[in-house]
């Protein structure tokens, strides 16, 4: 169980704003943090990691107190059991892939585990390459593997896939899913990719104006409560097939692809990768027992 | 999607299903929803809502006579026809609002639909979604 | 012709010693400056950069006053440590460190500031101390900057004249460095010796700078790979 309560004043371009967050996470859970840029999502991760200090707060991770401003307890980042994946990956350019992982591993590198991690992210063949020679997706895999080397209590992912193209996002999303299943590391993911959140997270926190405005399961939080349509799916546009009068839009939702039609004007608003909601009245679908 | 702004005028509920009457542009529309005023806060008399229905769910009728189970019938003038091989898109002027209908091109020919024709738009009650207007 | 190579030797001895201490002093100072953002940063930066614009004789004059056995610092050092910094090699080293400080600090600071903050933070989250992070992550990634700092400080120390003259004087084997020796030889119209010293310094300075440019280019390409 992870209990978090922090308060921090953010100085933004539009003036000062208070970030005030209180939540708890189940050990082994995967939680997504969603919100507009500037809402304080990254700040929240950095507060957890101890990279910045809150004015007031309490953080307890699996029984260990990391931060208690009342009792003046404040563990430095080094003493907090975290794996942090940065938006820019933050791989050390002077070290090879393997050395990056070994550096994380400490004085007595657990070579077996490092090898296992490299294999899991399919990077064992590139172990002796320098990070600058790798593609974005490969860098991201190494950053993930490196963050897991110390078997952290919490894995913090700061928009880990935002710098990648659509196809690579898909692949890495699945890899993150597998890694989470394998290690059951409590994970916090900052993302504004709905498909990513739906695929990976079992809980989502929406941060607005510095505090949690909504939380719950992704489908509960994101479904449009103001709409009468009973069939509502969120997904990602994967293909747009133009036609004369109507276009066919293919949407990935969960593990399945659904097809729906749209007018040309509607299709022009969409692109591959667009996050969409598909809704329909409850009266059309026909149910057949399998 | 087609969208019309209207005001809720009647709500008839049985079990979990409600038939909602909505006045839009002086015409009364009906929508069948799996919701009740208890489950959906926007189902209130005089509440401002949007009617939403897909282009493919709107039919066109010309010189319609006799009985019809369809509740949502509204007059309009054809402003444009965008023909395709299989389907065509028709823009219907409903009291100044353009609503689109996608029907088979065969039907367009069969009904001799032309720009300027006075026709009727038809939508089944279960094809209209209601969205709260804010 | 009998040329005394003592002054040249002394010059290099001074340059080596100064560069060595500058490196030890410059890294923490540069990393401190790179890490702070408040107003005191500008004051410190301006102070360190003073030797870039100040006539060496000004710095020399103040140091002479400070180091003099009758000044408070000079008398303190002499009483407690039995060190005299005027007209001594040790004094030259201290003065040279101050004089060449910006040449060491500025490149390293710029190098550190150019590194993304996430490198440092990533290292911290991997459990590494500030010191480990500095030596294993930050410094290895600013090799060109370190190299520039070392070479420029070294070269700048070789080129000192006014400062040495002010606080070192002209004591053979102690403070008579090559630049002073050249002045000395010209004064006594011994142009031949002055030529030898001058040409050696000229050749050397050019070689050093050439090396800096060549090696820096390589280092930059290497880090880009």
TrEMBL record, chain A:
The keyword Transport applies. Signal peptide: none annotated. SUPFAM superfamilies: P-loop containing nucleoside triphosphate hydrolases (SSF52540). Residues 1-234 form the ABC transporter domain. PROSITE patterns: ABC_TRANSPORTER_1, ABC_TRANSPORTER_2. InterPro entries: AAA+_ATPase, ABC_SmlMolc_Importer, ABC_transporter-like_ATP-bd, ABC_transporter-like_CS, P-loop_NTPase, Transp-assoc_OB_typ1. GO terms for molecular function: ATP binding. This is ATP-binding cassette domain-containing protein. The keyword Signal does not apply. SMART domains: AAA. Keywords: ATP-binding, Nucleotide-binding, Transport. It comes from Rhodocytophaga aerolata.
UniProtKB/TrEMBL annotation, chain B:
Keywords: Molybdenum. SUPFAM superfamilies: MOP-like. InterPro entries: Mo/tungstate-bd_C_term_dom, Mop_domain, Transp-assoc_OB_typ1. The keyword RNA-binding does not apply. Residues 67-132 form the Mop domain. It holds the Pfam family TOBE. This is TOBE domain-containing protein. It comes from Rhodocytophaga aerolata.
Automatic annotation (TrEMBL), chain C:
Keywords: Cell membrane, Membrane, Molybdenum, Transmembrane, Transmembrane helix, Transport. InterPro entries: MetI-like, MetI-like_sf, ModB_ABC. Gene3D superfamilies: MetI-like. The keyword Cell membrane applies. Signal peptide: none annotated. The chain crosses the membrane at residues 12-34, 46-65, 85-105, 145-167, 196-215. It is a multi-pass membrane protein. It is found in: Cell membrane. It comes from the Bacteria. Residues 8-212 form the ABC transmembrane type-1 domain. Belongs to the binding-protein-dependent transport system permease family. CysTW subfamily. Part of the binding-protein-dependent transport system for molybdenum; probably responsible for the translocation of the substrate across the membrane. This is Molybdenum transport system permease. It comes from Rhodocytophaga aerolata.
């Amino acid at each position: 169980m992870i209990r978090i309560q922090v308060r921090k004043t953010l100085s933004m371009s539009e003036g000062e704003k208070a970030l005030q967050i209180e939540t708890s996470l189940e050990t082994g859970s995967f939680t997504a943090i969603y919100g507009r840029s500037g809402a304080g999502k990254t700040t929240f991760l950095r507060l957890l990691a101890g990279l910045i200090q809150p004015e007031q707060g309490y953080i307890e991770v699996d029984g260990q107190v990391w931060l208690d401003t009342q009792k003046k307890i404040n563990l430095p980042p080094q003493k907090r059991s975290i794996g942090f994946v940065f938006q820019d990956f933050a791989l050390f350019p002077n070290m090879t892939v393997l050395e990056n992982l070994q550096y994380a591993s400490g004085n007595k590198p657990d070579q077996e585990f490092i090898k296992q991690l490299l294999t899991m992210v399919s990077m064992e063949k590139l172990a002796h390459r320098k990070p600058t020679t790798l593609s974005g997706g490969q860098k991201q895999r190494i950053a993930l593997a490196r963050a897991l080397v110390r078997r952290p209590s919490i894995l913090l992912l700061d928009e880990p896939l935002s710098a990648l193209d659509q196809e690579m996002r898909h692949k890495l999303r699945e890899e993150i899913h597998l890694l989470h299943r394998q290690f059951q590391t409590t994970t916090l993911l900052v993302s504004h990719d709905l498909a990513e959140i739906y695929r990976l997270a079992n809980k989502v926190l929406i941060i607005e104006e510095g505090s949690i405005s909504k939380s719950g399961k992704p489908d509960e939080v994101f479904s449009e409560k103001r709409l009468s349509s009973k069939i509502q799916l969120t997904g990602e546009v994967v293909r747009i097939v133009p036609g004369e009068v109507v276009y066919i839009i293919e949407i990935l939702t969960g593990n399945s692809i659904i097809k729906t039609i749209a007018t040309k004007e509607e299709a022009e608003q969409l692109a591959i990768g667009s996050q969409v909601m598909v809704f329909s009245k409850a009266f059309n679908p026909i149910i057949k027992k399998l | 999607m087609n969208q019309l702004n209207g005001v809720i005028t009647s709500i008839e509920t049985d079990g979990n299903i409600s038939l909602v009457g909505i006045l839009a542009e002086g015409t009364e529309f009906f929508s069948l929803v799996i919701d009740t005023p208890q489950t959906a806060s926007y189902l209130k008399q005089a509440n401002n809502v949007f009617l939403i229905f897909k282009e493919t769910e709107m039919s066109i009728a010309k010189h319609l006579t006799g009985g019809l189970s369809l509740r949502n019938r509204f007059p309009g003038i054809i402003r444009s026809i965008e023909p395709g091989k299989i389907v065509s898109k028709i823009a219907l002027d409903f009291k100044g609002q353009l609503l689109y209908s996608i029907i088979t091109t065969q039907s367009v020919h069969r009904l001799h639909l032309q720009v300027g024709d006075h026709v009727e738009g038809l939508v089944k009650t279960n094809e209209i979604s209601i969205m709260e207007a804010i | 012709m009998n040329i005394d190579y003592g002054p040249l030797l002394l010059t290099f001895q001074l340059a080596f010693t100064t560069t060595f201490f500058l490196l030890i002093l410059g890294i923490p100072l540069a990393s401190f400056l790179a890490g702070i953002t408040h107003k005191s940063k500008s004051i410190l930066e301006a102070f360190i950069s003073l030797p870039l614009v100040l006539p060496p004789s000004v710095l020399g004059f103040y140091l002479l006053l400070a180091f003099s056995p009758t000044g408070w610092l000079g008398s303190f050092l002499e009483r407690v440590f039995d060190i005299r910094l005027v007209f001594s090699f040790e004094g030259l080293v201290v003065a040279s460190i101050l004089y060449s400080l910006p040449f060491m600090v500025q490149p390293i600071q710029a190098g550190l500031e150019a590194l993304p903050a996430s490198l440092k933070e990533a290292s911290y989250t991997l459990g590494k101390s500030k010191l480990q992070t500095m030596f294993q992550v930050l410094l290895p990634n600013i090799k060109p900057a370190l190299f520039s700092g070392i070479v420029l400080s070294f070269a700048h120390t070789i080129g000192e004249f006014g400062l040495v003259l002010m606080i070192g004087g002209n004591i053979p084997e102690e403070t008579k460095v090559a630049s002073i020796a050249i002045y000395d030889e010209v004064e006594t119209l011994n142009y031949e010796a002055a030529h030898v010293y001058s040409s050696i310094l000229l050749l050397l300075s050019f070689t050093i700078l050439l090396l800096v440019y060549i090696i820096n280019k390589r280092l930059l390409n290497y880090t880009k790979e």
